[in-house]
Amino acid sequence: MPKGLVHSEIEKRLTAELAPVSLTVTNDSASHQGHAGDDGSGESHFSVEIECAAFAGQSRLNRQRMVNKALGDMMQDKVHAMVIKARAPGE
Predict the structure, then answer these.
(1) Residue 54 and residue 76: Cα distance in Å, rounded?
(2) Phi, psi angle pair for 50, to nearest 5°
Protein backbone atom coordinates (compact mmCIF):
# COMPACT_ATOMS: atom_id res chain seq x y z
CA MET A 1 0.00 0.00 0.00
CA PRO A 2 1.52 3.37 -0.96
CA LYS A 3 2.13 5.95 1.73
CA GLY A 4 -0.35 8.77 1.86
CA LEU A 5 0.39 12.45 2.39
CA VAL A 6 -0.26 12.35 6.15
CA HIS A 7 1.89 9.23 6.59
CA SER A 8 4.75 10.84 4.67
CA GLU A 9 4.44 14.10 6.60
CA ILE A 10 4.61 12.24 9.94
CA GLU A 11 7.86 10.58 8.83
CA LYS A 12 9.27 13.87 7.54
CA ARG A 13 8.52 15.84 10.71
CA LEU A 14 9.78 13.17 13.12
CA THR A 15 12.97 12.70 11.12
CA ALA A 16 13.64 16.45 10.94
CA GLU A 17 12.90 17.17 14.59
CA LEU A 18 14.20 14.08 16.39
CA ALA A 19 16.78 12.49 14.05
CA PRO A 20 15.72 8.95 14.95
CA VAL A 21 18.02 5.94 14.74
CA SER A 22 14.98 3.98 13.59
CA LEU A 23 11.43 4.98 12.71
CA THR A 24 8.43 2.92 11.68
CA VAL A 25 5.12 4.61 10.95
CA THR A 26 2.13 2.34 10.38
CA ASN A 27 -1.24 3.50 9.06
CA ASP A 28 -3.86 1.71 11.18
CA SER A 29 -6.82 3.60 9.71
CA ALA A 30 -8.34 0.59 7.91
CA SER A 31 -8.92 -1.05 11.31
CA HIS A 32 -10.95 1.97 12.43
CA GLN A 33 -13.29 2.53 9.47
CA GLY A 34 -16.68 3.64 10.69
CA HIS A 35 -15.44 4.37 14.22
CA ALA A 36 -15.29 7.75 15.91
CA GLY A 37 -12.56 9.88 14.41
CA ASP A 38 -12.60 8.15 11.02
CA ASP A 39 -12.74 11.08 8.63
CA GLY A 40 -12.95 8.88 5.54
CA SER A 41 -9.48 9.92 4.34
CA GLY A 42 -7.88 6.57 5.15
CA GLU A 43 -5.24 8.47 7.15
CA SER A 44 -6.56 9.19 10.64
CA HIS A 45 -5.07 6.48 12.89
CA PHE A 46 -1.36 5.64 13.13
CA SER A 47 1.21 3.74 15.17
CA VAL A 48 4.75 5.06 15.54
CA GLU A 49 7.78 3.14 16.75
CA ILE A 50 10.71 5.48 17.17
CA GLU A 51 14.21 5.06 18.61
CA CYS A 52 16.00 8.30 19.29
CA ALA A 53 19.02 9.46 21.33
CA ALA A 54 17.03 12.49 22.52
CA PHE A 55 14.82 10.11 24.53
CA ALA A 56 17.68 9.01 26.81
CA GLY A 57 16.83 9.87 30.41
CA GLN A 58 13.30 10.99 29.49
CA SER A 59 10.13 9.54 30.99
CA ARG A 60 7.60 7.78 28.79
CA LEU A 61 5.30 10.80 29.06
CA ASN A 62 8.04 13.24 28.05
CA ARG A 63 8.94 11.07 25.06
CA GLN A 64 5.34 11.13 23.89
CA ARG A 65 5.23 14.89 24.38
CA MET A 66 8.38 15.23 22.26
CA VAL A 67 6.76 13.22 19.45
CA ASN A 68 3.53 15.25 19.71
CA LYS A 69 5.50 18.51 19.66
CA ALA A 70 7.40 17.40 16.54
CA LEU A 71 4.10 16.64 14.81
CA GLY A 72 2.61 19.98 15.89
CA ASP A 73 -0.70 20.88 14.28
CA MET A 74 -1.06 17.45 12.68
CA MET A 75 -2.26 16.07 16.01
CA GLN A 76 -5.22 18.46 16.01
CA ASP A 77 -5.94 18.77 12.29
CA LYS A 78 -5.11 15.47 10.59
CA VAL A 79 -4.47 12.65 13.07
CA HIS A 80 -7.28 11.37 15.27
CA ALA A 81 -5.30 8.73 17.16
CA MET A 82 -1.69 7.62 17.46
CA VAL A 83 0.00 4.83 19.39
CA ILE A 84 3.55 5.85 20.27
CA LYS A 85 6.32 3.43 21.23
CA ALA A 86 9.36 5.58 21.94
CA ARG A 87 12.71 4.30 23.19
CA ALA A 88 16.29 5.43 23.49
CA PRO A 89 19.09 3.45 21.81
CA GLY A 90 19.95 0.33 23.80
CA GLU A 91 16.54 -0.02 25.44
Answers:
(1) 24
(2) -135, 135
In DSSP terms, which residues pair with 46 in a beta bridge?
27, 82
Q: How far is CA 80 from CA 36, 46, 50, 56, in A?
A: 9, 9, 19, 28
8-64 tens-digit pLDDT: 999 999 999 999 999 999 998 866 555 555 555 567 889 999 999 999 999 999 999
CA distances from 29 to 3, 10, 22, 57 (A): 12, 14, 22, 32
pLDDT digits (tens, 9 = 90+) for 48-85: 999 999 999 999 999 999 999 999 999 888 888 899 99
pTM for the model stands at: 0.85
